[in-house]
Amino acid sequence: MDLAAKDSYIQKLASKVISQREEPKKRAFVHFKGKSDTDPPSKKKKKLKKKNVRENSTDRTPKHQQKPNPSPATPKSLGKTKSTSESLNGSTLHTPKDTSFSTVDALRKRLHEKIEESRGQGAPQDALSEAVKAKRAKRKMERERKKRKRKEFLMKKLPEQSGQEQPAEIKEEPIAPAADKRVTSAVVFNKVETVDKGYETKIQAKMKKKKGEKGKITPLTGKNYKQLLSRVEARKEKLERLREKDEAKASEMENKIKWTNMLYKAEGIKIKDDEDQLRTSLKRKEKRRAQRKKKWTNRSEQVIEKMQQRQDKRRKNLQKQKQGKMEKRKNRARKKGRVLPEDLKKAARKQLRYVYAYFYVEDLKYAFISANHGQTTLCEQNNRVEFTQLAADYKAVNLGQGFPDFSPPQFVQDAFCKAVSGGPQMHQYTRAFGHPRLVKSLAKFFSRIVGHEIDPFEDVLVTVGAYQALFCAFQALIDDGDEVIIVEPFFDCYQPMVLMAGGTAVYVPLRPKGSSTVLSSGDWVLSAEELASKITPRTKAIVINSPNNPLGKVYKVEELQMIADLCIKHDLLCFSDEVYEWLTYDGAKHVKIASLPGMWERTITVGSAGKTFSATGWKVGWAISSGKLIKHMKIVHQNSVYHCATAAQEAVSHGFDREYELFGTPESYFQQLPAMLHQKRQKLASCLRSVGLQPVMPEGGYFMITDISSVHVDLNDESTKNESYDFRFVKWLIKEKGLATIPVSAFFSPEHSKEFDKYIRFCFVKFGDQIPWKKRKVELKEKHKQWKKAKLIKRLEKQKQQETAERAEQEECQSKKGRAYTVSVALPGSVLDNAQSPELRTYLAGQIARACVVFNVDEIIVFDEQGEDVKSVEGEFKGVGKKGHACIQLARILQYMECPQYLRKWFFPVHKDLQYAGLLNPLDSPHHMRIDEESEYREGRVLNKPPKQGKGSLVNCGMRKDVRIDKQLQPDLRVTVKLTKTQNQESRLYKGVVVAPHVPRTEGGLYWGYTVRLASCLSSVFTESPFKEGYDLTVGTSERGSSVDQVTLSPFKHLLVVFGGLQGLEASLDADQNLDVTDPSDLFDLYLNTCPDQGSRTIRTEEAILISMATLKQKIRAAFSEDSSSS
């Protein structure tokens, strides 16, 4: 753009600005009270201001081009100037005609004028018009008038409230309009008019109130019932005191109070002087206050609870988010190849991934449940527990359980006492995997025997007895599906421990040699071929016990080498239980299998201080093996038991230190103990031979088994008939002879136990001279006699109590007014075919049910007059007029109506026959109870809840609480319950007894509904009677029968009334092939016309039931009333 164009653009813009400057309006400056000076300008003003600034900025010219303007033009003169146009390079520039000016100076002048006006220092130059002034004056007068009206209203209202006279009305006076011009230098204030509103002081108000009281008696008004009640009581006491002093004054005062109250009531004031009503109102008010308080408390608690729940939820969400983030970080780290500490722990606990639950069942069997597979494996019962308890019950001499009846050696006892009193360290935790002194002693002692240097802190683990050492070995080294070969007979814990580790037990038995007489446990041998045949690719370990319990066999070096060769060949582990290693006899030598070549790295050797030092109660055991195997066992140990008794470990370490020094010498305890037990073994063997038994002499341990096949005793006990022979023999021995042993078949697997059920085990470690056998036998016989006598007396007393209770119950039943006889009604199901729709069929069945209930019918028989075989209600209705299903539908509806309403949903599923059950009228019989209705009897349903041991099932009887009955019944069974008379209302359950359904009728005198029976034909009504004696009185109804008025009924037990169908009883008789008679009257004792001289040709069945039962009811009542009077 060239310079000429720029000048032309600026000239046009200036002329536009000048043309927009209009003459300002002539108006006075008025303060705007709606906004303060500090309020921000509105959006509209902001826009206008920005627009003006932009326009002014475009019209501004540089200072060096401006011309001096000595007399600046006013806005008025500027607005009236005329501009002329001059041509400059083809463009025109509009300029003022009379004077030259600067746009910036004009805007500055206008700004100063605005500032002066806002400060109130100058009046506007132009006056307002007359119309504007008049309008503003009128608005001001209107505002003043409204203000006066408001004041008058308040002045009228206040005297009414305070009882003063109203002031005179204030006349409106016009206020002169304000002057056009105001003094600019003066300050104008708003006028405030004060009016005396007639307020009074408290003393004046009180005095005025007293003057308004009648007779100086304050009226009893208001809602402060507590204060009113106290005033009434005070007034009453005052009158009583005045009456004691002066009767006349009291009467005068009382009359004055009554008269004053009447005056107040005449004025419409309600006087509250009734003491009882005040107390009631106060109580109601306090109750409402308490309710509101309780409601508020509950609401506050709910709000707090909701807040707490929200906080908990938020906290859980935050924790979840935090854990999620942490897991994501861990997963990212795992993807990068990092190994986390928790992954190492999981890998170390690989063998502990199976969780098993251990529980006992009623027959002392225990089960182990695999969490991974959900399978339950029942093991044989724990024989030690069972037979130990049986021995204790019969106070028998216990030669079955394996523990000594003498104390440990004195040097071990002294070491234990010294450890206990040796300072605080012996009473605190020690090293988790074994007391340092003990593991060093064990490593030092057994290194010499094994021929291998044992590391005390890597190769030795001290456990809570040998039992826990075995447990750690199986849990740490046996995986799911691994097979473990167990040599039989075996200690009873091996099999459960294998199952708990997820493994499978495979059994190989020791068998006696071919000779007919077995003299030593050494004659029982292990077949190498059979053992090798049991090894499979899944075989993991072989378990041996040397010396063996219960056999006493000590494995020879050749047998151990055979086992070692198989272990090395198939890379198997060996668990060697050697707790009896120091107890060997007759030159037998115990050899550790771990000492054989190639077996140290694969053998777990288990030992026990309880067997070594005869201190079974200390529970100190150990496992010795390579550190590679022991480290896995340590993980199981630290996560199950963690630690063993410190003092006991200290004492055992002293014992091994002593034996290390005396090993092989006569002073060694390991030499003295076998010598002592050898004498006991010989004595027990001679005793067994003296009674005709053949003992198997043990080479080691302190158990001896004997053959009992030569003993012939009567073992035909019903309680033990399903058990093996040795089990029955041991129980007979305990009960009859007072001697407790253990059956040997318990140490074999089920597949081999039958081969060895002719042996029992004795423990000779307890066998000594202190047992007086003859005296013991006499005592046992005497005790047995006394026990039998006490048992007989107890049985007689119990029988006597039962007879007394039965006699009392019979007397109570006789005293009650019950109904012994029953009434049955039989009718054909074809009566429903007379109805034209399913709705009418349902309603007809309901009418029949109600008719039977009204007249106390106990049984309804629905028979098929066509002779079809219908004996269940599991049919289906196929439509009106269809054949054979009317009986089923009628029976189903009758059963549905008889069932109490709170039990129907359990016994009647949705069915087409019950589609219109809503049309049925309720029976409302006595056994249809409401939820809070009290009754001695109730119908109920046995709940599907497992009952507690020794307690009965739970029954839902339609009450707010379930009922605990006296028996354990099958779930979902309908029962009649007799409730206990005195119930504990605070108890969670009611108590009751199950009774027969007829008891409420026979004993309680209550009608208890009816039963429904289906009969395939008319003859089945008689032949299939639920009563043993049948029906002793039968009545047939027909218009062809004799008149009922001429009949008298005799007493009966079971009455049967039979009704015919649409074609009468004759049609039912003709269709029944089992009946040879042609006349229906031959079937019944009475063939009656219950409605003689009937006006209709036909009587419907539901009508016949009502008519007949109403007529017969009088006859029945007369029969039994005559019988009771004659008796």
From TrEMBL:
Main location per the UniProt record: cytoplasm
GO annotation, cellular component aspect: mitochondrion
Cofactor: pyridoxal 5'-phosphate
Renumbered residue ranges of the record's region Disordered: 20-177, 282-341
Catalytic activity: uridine in 28S rRNA + S-adenosyl-L-methionine = N(3)-methyluridine in 28S rRNA + S-adenosyl-L-homocysteine + H(+); an S-substituted L-cysteine + H2O = a thiol + pyruvate + NH4(+); L-kynurenine + 2-oxoglutarate = kynurenate + L-glutamate + H2O
Composition-biased stretches (Polar residues): 80-103
Keyword entries, A-Z: Aminotransferase, Coiled coil, Cytoplasm, Methyltransferase, Pyridoxal phosphate, Transferase
InterPro entries assigned to the protein according to its UniProt record, in alphabetical order: Alpha/beta_knot_MTases (IPR029028), Aminotransferase_I/II_large (IPR004839), Kynurenine-oxoglutarate_AT (IPR051326), NA-bd_OB-fold (IPR012340), Put_MeTrfase-C9orf114-like (IPR003750), PyrdxlP-dep_Trfase (IPR015424), PyrdxlP-dep_Trfase_major (IPR015421), PyrdxlP-dep_Trfase_small (IPR015422)
GO MF annotations in UniProt: cysteine-S-conjugate beta-lyase activity; kynurenine-oxoglutarate transaminase activity; methyltransferase activity; pyridoxal phosphate binding
Stretches with biased composition (Basic and acidic residues): 53-62, 168-177, 302-311
Record-level GO BP terms: methylation
Coiled-coil residue windows: 222-256
Pathway info: Amino-acid degradation; L-kynurenine degradation; kynurenate from L-kynurenine: step 1/2
E.C. number: 2.6.1.7, 4.4.1.13
Record-stated family: Belongs to the class IV-like SAM-binding methyltransferase superfamily. Belongs to the class-I pyridoxal-phosphate-dependent aminotransferase family.
Assembly notes: Interacts with INCA1.
Name this polypeptide is given: 28S rRNA (uridine-N(3))-methyltransferase
Record organism: Gambusia affinis
